[in-house]
Automatic annotation (TrEMBL), chain B:
Keywords: ATP-binding, Nucleotide-binding, Transport. Residues 19-253 form the ABC transporter domain. Pfam families: ABC_tran. GO terms for molecular function: ABC-type amino acid transporter activity; ATP binding; ATP hydrolysis activity. Belongs to the ABC transporter superfamily. This is Glutamine transport ATP-binding protein GlnQ.
Length: 408, 259, 430
């Protein structure tokens, strides 16, 4: 080691707080800290003064009080005598349900539109461009209201499905006997699970996992022996056979309940309310336009040279897509795709405009109005969305890092 | 470039110390990039620093104008100690000019604006005077006619000469060159080296990190070989090239001169 | 090798260019390759043509047979009598409400209209600086003050005072610049503030001096409200976004943390929750006796919202700059403020413009969300006063089509501009 010959320690002067790089950053941060403390305490003192003047306090006790309002879509049992907290949970679940479904369908719309936009068929690619441009450039709120208006005004009223008193045929019947589009929502069959039904369900999930396992086995086998095993037929077998066997062995515990016209309304089946359908479809088709752009950009980002290099190696066109282009394109597509999912989740709060009872409708809407606890409700509302955003961001960081590692 | 004979006798090396580095050490995290560097540069010296990549030669000259911070030891330039005091850093930076491998011209400013920016804002020179100075140096590097173009419109060699002129406009007493010709196409290297030779003839104190051994032979009065963060060998060019002492120097020279 | 020499050949005559074989060019060729190159392709073409036919067969009669002159929807139904035409009379009768809201005095409609037209003189110098002389930027600089005076009215002393304050502040800034950035900024702010106070007193003393009749903020509505919110919030959020982006890049941990928390918080919550804050929470944080109207609170929240997004765009621009630019600025002895102002920001902002424009389009669309907190912007007007009136209940196709067209024209125009600019920047770099 060498002898230390640092600059001689000169006496500390007050000017060094600004001129010396060792202290300068502390000085600035201290000033910033003071400014933050001052402004926060100013805001808090205003808050306290206002609360005092209005005779209010800050408390979350209202969450334990009975909510006193109904929610028209209940993933878990709920009635108006339940607490605000339970109403909040129901709202949060409704948010997650519509956000999840919209993510799935938006991805489907987006991928189809993005790929078709690159199609060499002129009419198809132009139609897709028109779709993308029209939906991207008009606010999602307007789309939501338009679609809500259509579902509420253009679909037939339920009365038209009723059997008239004279016993003649009703004006409308169910499509294929299973579905009905009405101005009060869409009625679809519902799956019913008897005892053992969940076993069938889990078998089905396990089969899907099994297909992936089989796929990796096929790959391993190909690498080890050079022989390619058939994939599609065995995969179909894995998907169908175990579930079917389980279904029969357990005595057909899973059934389908069809919606049927009762005297006044549909009985049985699953009612997807107009507000839910409108929100789901509007979020999907609006975000689908953005995803289409991401998909198109992702595919275009893979240079022609990559395709040509693969072709020059003698790889078949279908394999070029799955082995060379898609893995690279996905790397470009997935990060913006995830941020579109984030956008869907945030935009699902527009539910309040059509009366879908998501978290914004329950906690930020009726609960806030009934209890007058504005600060508490809005804070809780923000924390919920913030948590979801942070979880999605964490996932995105993890994904980006895993992709980056593979590059090296 | 050897056709322009350099009159080395004109290049006066005074006894005045321009740069003095003592026991300087630097780490990147736990990696010891510069180890026990001791170097004294007299005013008017032309020093070429060479060595394999990653040997710390660029880091060494970047420490001299505080682009990188050293952790131990001392550096003083023209008697000003490089400390954490901003005034000292500013003083040293205004006396030391630097040219980079990738020129680092400001692409959104014209050539003339590139050259007048620092004099106007740092030296507070009146604009008109700064422009006259800039034109003087642009003539010196032989591109006055490009003054109103943007860097993107110039060739690499021209850009590097502008970068030299930009540094000279601050009237530095010492010039640092960080691989000034490595990013250039072969046919443009000569024009930049000629400019540097011209500077050397005028007595500028220069530290050049470069692999141009011809330039080293012709202009340098001292060649420093660095490896693994240490100064391995230093000598006058003639003995350095003909009779290297250290094994690593011999290996390095045989690799770069061999082909 | 010997054979090669024996087949040596020197061309003495040019081969004249010949036309391609028939069927390789022209309309037939185009149809062949683009529409019916294969059976699936031909089917796709047929489907595409059917979709276009289906859309047009609904759309054309709706437009062609539409009526523009009836007084209410019942008359519409009589006139149209099932011809499939649209009841566009709602537009002729209520367009002013959709554009200006229902409380803006109708005799002053010319004022916001004039302000809007002036936009066409004020904006091009900023958008196309490469084609227009620099002095035209004066129009851009004057526009906010003129537009404010036209829309809100009041004495002309208010905008003149504001302008004078800005000019005095800028003058003080340039004069003090040699004493350091902080001193200059402080001097500029103090100079501007003094002038504003002075003019505030003068304007308070003579409210009638060359005055337009004042219109209150809460009377703003319709598409005008969307435009005001969009333009004001984007303009305000750019400087705030720059500060946040620089803060996030800072080496000082405290500043960095504050900026990261702010940006990530705002980006993590929906705009609607921020509008709830503006509507019901923000008032708690102002002094008890202050009375800040809703539009101003909404502007504060939307500005914060877009500033966070713009900060991220600018951070991308900063990260795209090579470190050599920072080093060159350092080695020339420029200090932090100088390096940022003269070297880094001009370049980073230039790369960021397309991203900022995209944020601006998104934000402009999001201004419709204010209808949720019962402000009467375009969407609020249509949903509220128009569709719930007895005269026009049920005319939703026509009204929403009008809204769609307004938004589409503005947003599509801006996105096209941003794409064009992106192309320009790409060619600039080489």
């Amino acid at each position: 080691m060498t002898t230390l010959s640092d600059p001689p320690k000169s006496d500390f002067r007050i000017g060094m707080l600004l001129s010396d790089t060792r202290y300068r950053s502390y000085t600035f941060q201290f000033i910033a800290l003071m400014a933050i403390i001052l402004s926060v305490s100013y805001l808090v003192s205003n808050l306290l003064a206002n609360l005092d003047r209005l005779g209010q306090d800050l408390s979350y006790e209202f969450l334990g009080a009975p909510a006193g309002y109904d929610i028209n879509q209940q993933p878990i049992p709920y009635n108006s005598q339940d607490t605000h907290l339970r109403a909040t949970v129901v709202g949060a679940m409704n948010t997650l349900i519509v956000a999840f479904l919209a993510c799935v369908t938006a991805t489907i719309f987006g991928v189809i539109a993005g790929v078709l936009r690159l199609s060499n068929n002129w009419i198809i690619s132009k139609l897709m461009s028109v779709y993308v441009e029209i939906f991207r450039n008009i606010p999602v709120l307007i789309w939501l209201i338009i679609i809500f208006t259509i579902t509420a005004n253009v679909f037939a009223p339920i009365a038209e499905f009723r059997i008239p008193r004279d016993g003649s045929d009703p004006a409308r019947t169910l499509i294929f006997g299973v579905m009905a589009f009405t101005n009060q929502g869409v009625f679809v069959p519902r799956l019913t699970f008897d005892a053992g039904g969940m076993f069938v369900f889990w078998t089905f999930i396990a089969s899907i996992i099994g297909i992936f396992v089989y796929k990796s086995y096929v790959k391993k086998h190909l690498f080890a022996t050079g022989k390619e095993l058939p994939f599609w037929l065995p995969a179909l077998a894995i998907l169908v056979i175990p579930t079917l066997v389980m279904y029969l062995v357990l005595g057909r515990p899973v059934g389908v309940q069809l919606p049927e016209m009762g005297r006044f309304r549909f009985e049985g089946g699953l009612q997807l309310r107009t507000s839910f359908i409108a929100l789901w479809f509007a979020l999907s088709i609006y975000t689908g336009a953005f995803i289409a752009e991401n998909v198109r950009a992702g595919i275009l980002a893979i240079s022609k040279g990559q395709t040509e290099a693969a072709a020059a190696l003698g790889i078949r066109p279908g394999r070029i897509m799955s082995l060379v282009v898609l893995p690279q394109a996905l790397r470009v597509i997935i990060p913006p795709l995830i941020s579109q999912y984030l956008n869907i989740t945030k935009n699902s709060s527009l539910a309040i405009a059509v009366g879908y009872m998501d978290l914004t409708g329950t906690l930020g809407g009726i609960t806030l109005n009934q209890t007058g606890r504005a600060i508490e409700c809005v804070l809780l509302l923000m924390l919920f969305y913030l948590t979801i955003s942070l979880l999605i961001s964490l996932f995105m960081n993890w994904y980006n890092n895993s992709v980056k590692l593979k590059e090296r | 470039m050897t056709d322009t004979a350099v009159n080395t006798s004109q290049m006066q090396i005074s006894d005045e110390v321009a740069i003095s580095i003592q026991n300087m050490n630097k780490w990147y995290g736990t990696f010891h990039v510069l180890r026990d560097i001791d170097l004294t540069v007299q005013r008017g010296e032309r020093i070429v620093i060479c060595g394999p990549s990653g040997s710390g030669k660029s880091t060494l000259i970047r420490c001299i104008n505080a682009l990188e911070e050293h952790q131990q030891g001392s550096i003083s330039v023209d008697g000003t100690l490089l400390s954490s005091d901003l005034k000292n850093i500013d003083k040293i930076r205004s006396e030391v000019g630097m040219c980079f491998q990738h020129f680092n011209l400001f692409p959104h400013l014209t050539i003339l604006e590139n050259c007048t920016l620092a004099p106007i804002w740092v030296r507070k020179t009146p604009k008109k005077e700064a422009e006259e100075t800039a034109m003087y140096f642009l003539e010196k590097v032989k591109i006055p006619d490009q003054a109103n173009k943007y860097p993107g419109q110039l060739s690499g060699g021209q850009q590097q000469r502008v970068a030299i002129a930009r540094s000279l406009c601050m009237r530095p007493r010492i010039m640092l060159f960080d691989e000034p010709t490595s990013a250039l196409d072969p046919e443009m290297i000569k024009e930049v080296l000629d400019t540097m030779i011209q500077l050397a003839e005028e007595g500028m104190t220069m530290l050049c990190v470069t692999h141009e051994m011809g330039f080293a032979r012709q202009v340098a009065n001292r060649v420093i070989f660095m490896d693994a963060g240490q100064i391995v060998e230093q000598n006058a060019p003639e003995p350095f090239f003909t009779n290297p002492q250290n094994e690593r120097t011999q290996l390095f020279l045989s690799q770069i001169l061999g082909h | 090798m010997a054979q090669d020499h024996s087949t040596a050949f020197v061309r003495t005559q040019e081969i004249p260019p010949a036309p391609p074989p028939p069927g390789e060019t022209g309309a037939v060729h185009w149809i062949k390759t683009n529409l019916i190159s294969s059976v699936p392709n031909a089917i796709a073409t047929a489907v595409g043509i059917y979709v276009v036919y289906w859309l047009l067969s609904g759309l054309i009669p709706w437009i062609v047979n539409g009526t523009w002159v009836t007084n209410n929807i019942r008359e519409c139904r009589e006139v149209l009598a099932g011809s499939g035409g649209g009841c566009f009379s709602v537009l002729t009768e209520r367009y002013a409400q959709m554009l200006f809201g229902f409380e803006y005095p109708s005799e002053f409609y010319w004022r916001p209209s004039l302000a809007f037209s002036l936009l066409f003189f004020a904006v091009p110098p900023a958008l196309f600086p490469m084609y227009l002389p620099r002095w035209m930027l004066i129009a851009t600089g004057l526009y906010p003050f003129v537009a404010f005076w036209l829309i809100w009215g009041g004495t002309i002393l208010t905008p003149i005072g504001a302008l004078a304050g800005v000019m005095v502040g800028y003058y003080a800034f340039t004069k003090l610049d040699k004493y350091g950035f902080a001193a200059a900024l402080g001097g500029g702010v103090v100079g501007a503030w003094v002038v504003w106070q002075a003019f505030g007193m003068i304007a308070g003393g003579m409210p009638g001096f060359i005055a337009l009749e004042a219109v209150e903020s809460r009377n703003m509505g319709g598409f005008m409200l969307n435009m005001i919110l969009g333009v004001v919030c984007v303009s305000l959020s750019i400087p705030l976004g720059i500060v946040l982006a620089l803060g996030r890049q800072s080496s000082m941990p405290l500043i960095k943390i504050v900026c990261v928390v702010f940006i990530e918080f705002v980006r993590g919550v929906p705009l609607i929750t921020l509008l709830f804050v503006a509507n019901v929470v923000l008032a708690y944080f102002f002094p008890p006796d202050s009375n800040i109207d809703l539009i101003l609170r909404v502007i504060i929240m939307i500005t914060m919202f877009s500033a966070a997004y713009i900060a991220e765009v600018i951070r991308g621009g900063l990260a795209a700059l090579p470190t050599g630019q920072y080093e060159a600025a350092d080695s020339l002895g420029l200090n932090y403020a100088q390096a940022m102002r003269l070297i880094i920001l001009p370049q980073a902002l230039k790369i960021s413009i397309p991203g900022i424009v995209n944020v601006a389009v998104g934000l402009f669309k999001d201004t419709t969300l204010v209808s949720v907190i019962s402000m009467f912007d375009l969407v609020g007007m249509i949903r509220g006063p128009i569709l719930s009136s007895t005269d026009w209940a049920g005319v939703y196709w026509e009204t929403w089509a009008f809204a769609c067209i307004l938004f589409f024209v503005v947003c599509f125009g801006i996105s096209k501009y941003s794409q064009w600019l992106e192309g320009q920047l790409r060619t600039d770099r080489h």
